């Protein structure tokens, strides 16, 4: 079919690309136990890979946006797709955690950082007026759908076939995109490689990676001496990056990103609220499967089934929120979203105990999903509305970078809070239980920590008569840690409510 005969060809291609990128983030969380067993790795390692995937997208997003101006949006998109395909093949064939990390987190992350900003500009340049609104609505809806059905797809593949098909099936979409690539239009390059702010790219990438790695190291007390160094140096480098961007702008040089956008109250607060929203969402999607598969012994399919009501709720209320914005205004829908999702977190925190069944947490996940749906319905449009048409590329790069940074930090930080709560609780419980009568407390502590890290799939290195009590202690400790972690998530969401108060009631554009 001639590309001019079907006007929605571009948005369909963009939707397929965004679908496979979102699918990775949501589908693989339910496969944690299977990944640990088949790749002989640990919970902390899988957590690091999930966080690293979002981190690499975030750290390379600004560079990926700028490369479009050098190579053209179509070429940038297709190069990103090739890199993503190589990563998908590598992840599918993974024989250990390192290979999975290279394929999924590194190669797919690099590919996604080139694809995501290109899809935005391809859709934006291909449609006008109502068609443009419709196209972006379809694009956003498919992204939400990918996140919604990801857990159940991951659960079906992992339980009844193999988790490798999550990655392998993405190759089908990639092949289709290449077959219909002629629908895409190329943009004329406006920059040359010599115009690229290479120092800015290095500073932005390095600073974000150091910060998230510092958070991830919190899970291992022996590495705590490096945590402050990594987070501190990363923060300083990011400040230097911002100063370097301002200097280039003042000198009339091409910056990596137009950080003047951050001075606009709507754009700045919109990005802050996006980060705050992503942290609990990422944490929720990581720690719920950990609890279900360790304490209730749920398989991947059951885990995906438990998460499905929340996913559907998020999708429904993101669509409903978009309709309500014309009545209530974005600011007030955001405030409602933060309050409702905080309430959902509190309800979830109260539902965890030694006897919790999978069905018991569904009501809390639905309330949480209502709030998150409202937030997702507003944040992109609200934040991007602050940018002029000539700033859309920079605005999109910054927004998606901060959004993925929030997801990465959420996976790292909330996962760390849960694991620290578990490990700390184990030590306290061991001392009061008396099961260390024939072994040192340190020996049993070490054995139980390794047991949790392996998602309770190994044999405890303790006397057999102690195993039932040890299992009870582990499950009880995980339940207690979940309760405290969700209470912290509620506080983070309440912080989002406070920051959203400072948004203007009506949108303002950048001056």
From TrEMBL:
tRNA-binding found in the keyword field: no
Keyword annotations: Membrane, Transmembrane, Transmembrane helix, Transport
Pfam family, any one: MFS_1
Keyword Transport attributed: yes
GO molecular function, one term: transmembrane transporter activity
GO cellular component: membrane
UniProt membrane topology term: Multi-pass membrane protein
Subcellular location: Membrane
Domain Major facilitator superfamily (MFS) profile: 10-508
Transmembrane segments: 12-37, 43-64, 76-95, 101-124, 136-157, 163-184, 196-218, 224-245, 266-288, 300-320, 332-355, 361-384, 405-426, 485-503
Stored CDD domains: MFS_MMR_MDR_like
Taxonomy, superkingdom: Archaea
PANTHER family: MAJOR FACILITATOR SUPERFAMILY MULTIDRUG TRANSPORTER MFSC
Official protein name in the record: MFS transporter
Species of the source: Methanobacterium spitsbergense
């Amino acid at each position: 079919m001639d590309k001019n005969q079907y006007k929605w060809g571009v948005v369909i291609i963009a939707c397929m690309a965004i679908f496979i990128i979102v699918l990775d983030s949501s589908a693989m969380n339910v496969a944690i136990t299977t990944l640990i067993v088949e790749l002989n790795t640990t919970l902390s390692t899988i957590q690091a890979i999930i966080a690293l995937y979002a981190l690499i997208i975030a750290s390379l997003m600004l560079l990926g946006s700028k490369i479009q101006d050098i190579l053209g949006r179509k070429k940038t998109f297709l190069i990103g797709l090739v890199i993503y395909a190589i990563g998908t093949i590598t992840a599918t064939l993974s024989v250990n955690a390192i290979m999975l990390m290279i394929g999924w987190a590194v190669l797919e992350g690099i590919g996604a950082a080139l694809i995501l900003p290109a899809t935005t500009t391809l859709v934006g340049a291909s449609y006008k007026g109502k068609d443009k609104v419709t196209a972006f609505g379809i694009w956003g809806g498919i992204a939400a759908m990918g996140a919604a059905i990801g857990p159940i797809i991951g659960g079906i593949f992992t339980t009844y076939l193999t988790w490798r098909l999550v990655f392998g099936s993405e190759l089908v979409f990639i092949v289709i995109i290449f077959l219909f690539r002629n629908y895409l239009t190329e943009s004329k390059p406006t920059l040359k490689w010599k115009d690229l702010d290479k120092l800015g790219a290095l500073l932005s990438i390095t600073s974000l990676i150091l910060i998230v790695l510092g958070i991830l190291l919190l899970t291992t007390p022996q590495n705590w001496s490096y945590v402050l160094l990594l987070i501190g140096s990363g923060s300083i480098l990011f400040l230097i990056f911002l100063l370097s961007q301002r200097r280039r702008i003042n000198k009339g040089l091409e910056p990596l990103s137009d950080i003047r956008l951050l001075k606009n109250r709507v754009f700045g607060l919109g990005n802050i609220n996006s980060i705050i929203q992503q942290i609990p969402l990422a944490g929720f999607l990581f720690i719920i499967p950990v609890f279900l598969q360790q304490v209730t012994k749920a398989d991947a399919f059951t885990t995906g089934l438990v998460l499905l009501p929340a996913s559907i709720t998020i999708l429904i209320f993101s669509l409903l929120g978009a309709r309500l914005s014309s009545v209530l205004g974005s600011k007030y829908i955001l405030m409602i979203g933060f309050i409702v999702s905080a309430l959902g977190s509190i309800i979830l925190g109260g539902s965890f105990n030694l006897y919790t069944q999978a069905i018991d947490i569904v009501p809390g996940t639905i309330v949480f999903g209502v709030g998150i749906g409202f937030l997702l319905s507003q944040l992109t449009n609200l934040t991007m509305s602050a940018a002029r048409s000539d700033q859309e590329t920079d605005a999109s790069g910054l927004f998606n970078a901060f959004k993925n940074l929030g997801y990465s930090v959420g996976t790292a930080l909330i996962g760390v809070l849960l694991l620290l709560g578990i490990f700390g609780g184990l030590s306290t419980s061991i001392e009061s239980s008396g099961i260390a009568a024939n072994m040192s407390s340190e020996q049993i502590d070490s054995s139980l920590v390794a047991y949790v890290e392996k998602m309770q799939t190994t044999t405890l290195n303790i006397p057999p008569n102690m195993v039932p009590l040890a299992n009870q202690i582990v499950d009880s400790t995980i339940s207690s840690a979940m309760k405290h972690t969700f209470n912290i998530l509620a506080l983070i969401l309440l912080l989002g409510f406070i920051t959203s108060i400072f948004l203007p009631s009506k949108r303002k554009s950048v001056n």
